[in-house]
Amino acid sequence: MDRFVRNFIVVSIIYLGAASVLGVCMLWNESLLNFKFVHSHLMLLGWVSMMIYGVGYHVLPRFSGRPLRYPKMGELQFWTANAGLIGMLVFYAIGVNSPSDTIKALTLLFSAAEVFSIVLFLYNMLATLLPKAAH
């Protein structure tokens, strides 16, 4: 298993734990309900998407009988996805209590990094799974 594949799986499990703890804290203290966005994105982009990336990178090339087309792009996607998610959630959380144009711009910047990481995955998977046209 490639290192970045294992890393995706490991961080997804960490995000599941963090999102679960935050969810319980939100139930315990209703003032934390302002962080529903953080909780849901930890679950969906952290736990679910990171697990799908890791399993997808490992399994889909094997199903297609082809090696992953761009392994270094997978590594780049790992770092971009995690930096994007963490930055987006940190600046969103700061903006809940201290809104400003700068904080909003930083939240959007890290959100764009997250979208870019998704585009990397889409491109890498399609380049791996779709056969080249015969000449």
Give an account of the 3D structure.
The chain has 135 residues and is mainly α. The chain has one domain (3-129). The chain has helices at 3-28, 36-64, 71-97, 101-129. Helix 2 runs parallel beside helix 4 and helix 3 runs antiparallel to helix 4. The chain starts with a helix and ends in a 6-residue tail after the last helix.
* End-to-end distance: 33 Å
Number of helices: 4
Provide the succession of SSEs: HHHH
State the assembly state of the protein chains. Answer: single chain
* Structural category: mainly alpha
Q: Could you give a quick summary of the protein structure above?
A:
By secondary structure, the chain is mainly alpha-helical.
List keywords for this structure.
single chain; 4 helices; 82% helix; mainly alpha
